Amino acid sequence: MQNLENMPPVPLTIEGAAVLHQMMRVRWAAWRALPVEDRAAILNEAASTLATIEKQSSAAFGLLGHKGDLMLVHFRPGFDQLGEIQTCLAHLRLWDFLEQTSSYLSVIELGLYESTGKAYSDLAEKGIAPHSPDWNAQIEQTLERQRQAMHPRLFPEVPPAKYLCFYPMDRRRGEDKNWYQLPLSERQRQMAEHGAVGRRYGGTVKQIITGSIGFDDWEWGVDLFADDPLVFKKLIYEMRFDHVSAVYALFGSFFVGRRLDVEGFRKLLTV
Q: Which residues are known catalytic residues?
């Protein structure tokens, strides 16, 4: 029988839609300098494109604060489709009057700490060596069951809520505190506590976690969708007090925006 302490430390994950956030600032001086007729034609073209891509699970948000004027969020089946939408937008005449201030690339990720512990324990009891062909086959069966059960969460539409809060985050990897050196069972316990806080807000906020290790500068992205932006403060503040956040969490910049339909998008750019 294999010793559980010798099992792989990496929790299983399943991945879904590819996600791209694009933050940008309007070049207002250049935009205002255009003749009215040119602005109208350019805006009509951009508004028509927005109406089309909204049906493919994209959304526009008017950013609050100095980090930009506009944020576009795209959920697509894969990176090929993200590349296509990025190219499509870059070909718009409006793009000449937008300056990207930031972007974020990731994939929707569901961590399977509970399933990992059970799967690893079952395999250890059977004496199956980690990463052997039999091990890999049974792990893939576990993952496939989870993919089928969680498909709606892996490939969602952009939620229709009025406000979005997006931020990237890491787990601490310093000399004193290092999340990745904790035993799997302890990480599982802390994540269960962390998740319990989020579930209490399930009726007022929709949370989508994306993984970005190997894709962008941080390890995860977090999207919070709600009709009342105060819930972002309350949820994130409460989570600050659970152990995993208080000890191991590092946060990047926060971006908060209001959902823009096509008319709202036109209003933002009408001067």
A: 167
- Long-range (24+ apart) CB contacts under 8 A made by 123-128 are 123/2, 123/7, 124/1, 124/2, 124/3, 124/4, 124/7, 125/1, 127/1, 127/2, 128/2
* DSSP-derived 3-state class of residue 35: coil
DSSP three-state, residue 79: helix
Amino acid in position 185: S
* Alpha-helical regions (H) of the chain: 28-33, 36-54, 79-90, 113-125, 133-149, 151-154, 184-200, 230-239, 243-248, 262-269
Dump pLDDT digits (tens) for 195-208: 887 777 777 899 99
Closest CA to 103 of 59, 55, 166, 192: 166
Is there a contact between 171 and 179 (Cβ–Cβ < 8 Å)?
A: yes
Distance CA 71, CA 255 (A): 9
Q: Give the β-pairing of 163-171 and 220-226.
A: antiparallel
Q: Which amino acid is at 5?
A: E
pTM: 0.89
| C-beta separation of 36 from 117 below 8 A | no
